[in-house]
Design a protein that fits this description.
single chain, 127 residues, alpha+beta, Dihydrodipicolinate Reductase, domain 2, 5-stranded mixed β-sheet, 2 helices, 5 strands, 18% helix, AGPR_dimerisation_dom, N-acetyl-gamma-glutamyl-phosphate reductase dimerisation domain-containing protein, AGPR
């Protein structure tokens, strides 16, 4: 990747759960030889510190779809993998808000000079 300076391998595992809304994704990432899970969590926390809709969770906390239901939030967590030199990154979103339509509205807000969160703070709930 561009930020890493060389190619990285990522395994992406979306979880299909019998629910009407929400998506939980799991990514398995190979760390650089000198990198740690703590480094990755710190970098993500710094990167998204000022983002209203992205929250990096504290160590040991996993995201749940029930915590993003009806919102434009993305909850991200970083965990050590049982395989040495790898980490697990998890993300929960409400795919009916944070999906393509929410992204389109968020981008339109930015293009039109509106606050990024306009129309995204109290999404209607169905189902």
């Amino acid at each position: 990747s561009e930020s890493h300076g060389e190619a990285v391998q990522i395994s992406f595992t979306p979880h299909l759960i019998p629910m009407s809304r929400g998506m939980l994704s799991t990514m398995y990432v190979t760390l650089a030889p000198d990198a740690t899970v703590e480094d990755a969590r710190r970098i993500l926390s710094e990167k998204y510190a000022d983002e209203k809709f992205v929250h990096v969770l504290p160590e040991g906390v996993a995201p749940h779809t029930r915590h993003v239901r009806g919102s434009n939030l993305a909850l991200i967590s970083v965990h050590p993998d049982r395989i040495k030199g790898r980490m697990i990154v998890m993300c929960a979103i409400d795919n009916l808000v944070k999906g393509a339509s929410g992204q389109a509205l968020q981008n339109m807000n930015l293009l039109c000079g509106l606050p990024e969160h306009t129309g995204l703070m109290q999404a209607p709930m169905f189902p």
